[in-house]
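Repro:
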Amino acid sequence: PGLQPHSKHPNQAQRRTTSFLKASESPRKMGDFGPAEKIKADEIAAVFRAEIKETVEKLKARGVTPLLVGFLANGDVAAKKYAEWTGKACESDGIKFELREIDKMDLEDKLKEANADPVVHGIMIYYPCFGNTPSFYGGNMDDYLRDTVPIEKDVEGLCHTYRTYLYHNVRYTDVGTQKYKGGIVTPTGAQGTKKSLLPCTPLAIIKILEYLKMYDDKLPVGDRMYGKSVTVINRSEIVGRPLAAMLANDGADVYSVDLAGCYLMKRGKMQEHTESSEDVVKKSKVIVTGVPAKDYRLPTEWVQPGSIVINVSHFKNVDEEALLKIPGVRYVPLVGKVTVAMLERNLIRLVENFHVPEGQ
């Protein structure tokens, strides 16, 4: 789930079935729901880490031990703690992890060395490094660095190629190509053996929603959020915007909210939306908060019974005590452990796609 072929829209029969189901469901009253529940990320991450350990052992039997290299060039204490946490998880799951702490002025050269090193299977950089400092090559330096990591080693799925595939809903990188005038060949994503990579935190949120059965596995892959409304309060290029696009590409109506206003995102489309934040939250089955501010709080009176609320900010964006008084709410306060599991999963995908010698 997340990156597989699908129909652009459900066919007529599927639409009729979905419409029938929606029409036949009478609005549920507050008394119809059980008590609210706090969901721990550990139990969700454990499912994936068990699969990762098994796959790593199989790769080792084929002569490949996955190696992930992380570059820390900003001196950020929180980033270093996250790196140490990542290292412990990797070690536990049989993956090698090297944290390379360097001066940011040396980062470009060290990154190029890692790109060329056949022993390195995956690369990540702890951002921000330069912030909005402009690059000699155009744009800002951090964006340039993201695009300098090749698709064969971009474990975070943030380089230009993977970003393009995400937004254009290209789910495979190898088979099923379309040739345009001028000889340009691009994957269509309709079929293939090498799945594209997705950014780790947005992917973690998708996997949490699948775990909580928000995705409807009776519908075709790519339409399993069809008919559902989601509000994402954050439109950053690392989390909010890609997450909204992924959910929209899976059929949801996604309200992308930040200080600049509200946009409605549907598959391949994004348009300004005039309803207030309160209005869109009240009609959303899923609410994701990612506001990087200590004093922001999602008004709990906007949250409807039976909703899923996921907090991806380092800060608590909601009054947990008040939220857990709302019947049927499922609240995920932290996603970090699932994000690390997705990082490992992405690394395994890179190894399988690009780094296992032929014939092994």
